[in-house]
TrEMBL record:
UniProt-annotated location(s): Cytoplasm
Originating organism: Microbacterium kribbense
Xref: InterPro entries: Alpha/beta_knot_MTases, tRNA_m1G_MeTrfase_C_sf, tRNA_m1G_MeTrfase_TrmD, tRNA_m1G_MTases_N, tRNA_MeTrfase_TRMD/TRM10
Enzyme class: transferase
Main location: cytoplasm
UniProt-listed HAMAP family: TrmD (MF_00605)
Family stated for the protein in its record: Belongs to the RNA methyltransferase TrmD family.
Assembly and oligomerization: Homodimer.
Protein name (Swiss-Prot/TrEMBL): tRNA (guanine-N(1)-)-methyltransferase
Length: 235
């Protein structure tokens, strides 16, 4: 899987070299390329933003460097990528979308800053690839970098071979539309807090039933919106 990230803060992504994703990169499972948007500017100050037409606070990212960046990356890859722009005005990122990303051969992430990117860039990008504006959640970040980091990690760990034991991906929060059940390890009692006895019973059927009930109970208490969804597993 190839991932290109265009940003004015390439050093932000240095952490992709460590941990699970770093190993996946060195094993050749993930080909992540980080680009400085300013390499596609042509003035002395390497300008990437300008004042908004119509007035208003803040600056808007200029379309020209974005156009050149997308042209070059797409030409180099030689096929039509998925082009993702993180934006608080996008569709919300979810586990199904992470899974979709993990099955995509090539994703280009364009990190906006300031008040956003000139709107014409999204229209132009649609000629080069499939464009999606994606939000991490209903809050505003200073730019797309943190959102892209989250999306790369969520999708990257679903690429076969990245996580050592694939079973660990099956029983986690959101994979079946519910929150994960609680986990315990030794000792059986810690600071007057015993592990739920069913987990020590050796009765696998009872353990499975208890875990399912815990999933439903937690989801009801913390995320009732997940149960109200049309495709809710509890319906
Ligand atoms: N950029 C700024 N806020 C964002 C958010 N909530 N999600 C994705 N990108 C963003």
């Amino acid at each position: 899987m190839r991932i290109d990230i265009v940003t004015i803060f390439p050093e932000f992504f240095d952490v992709l070299e460590v941990s699970l994703l770093g190993r996946a990169r060195s094993k050749g499972l993930l080909d992540v390329r980080v680009h400085d948007l300013r390499q596609w500017t042509h003035d002395r100050h390497r300008t990437v933003d300008d004042t908004p037409y119509g007035g208003g606070a803040g600056m808007v990212m200029k379309p020209e460097p974005w156009g050149e960046a997308l042209d070059e990356i797409v030409a180099d890859a030689g096929s039509r990528p998925l082009i993702v722009f993180p934006s608080p005005a996008g569709e919300v990122f979810t586990q199904p979308l992470a899974r979709r990303f993990s099955r995509t051969d090539h994703i280009v992430f364009g990190c906006g800053r300031y008040e956003g990117i000139d709107e014409r860039v999204f229209d132009y990008a649609a000629a080069l690839g499939d464009v999606r504006l994606v939000s991490l959640g209903d809050y505003v970040l200073n730019g797309g970098e943190v959102a892209v980091m989250a999306m790369v990690e969520a999708a990257g760990r679903l690429v076969p071979g990245v996580v050592g034991n694939p079973d660990s991906l099956v029983e986690e929060s959101h994979e079946d539309g519910l929150l994960e059940y609680p986990s315990y390890t030794k000792p059986a009692s810690w600071r007057d807090r015993p592990v739920p006895p069913v987990l020590l019973s050796g009765d696998h059927g009872a353990v499975d039933a208890w875990r399912r009930e815990q999933q439903l109970e937690r989801t009801r208490a913390r995320r009732p919106d997940l149960l109200a969804a049309d495709d809710s597993p509890a319906l």
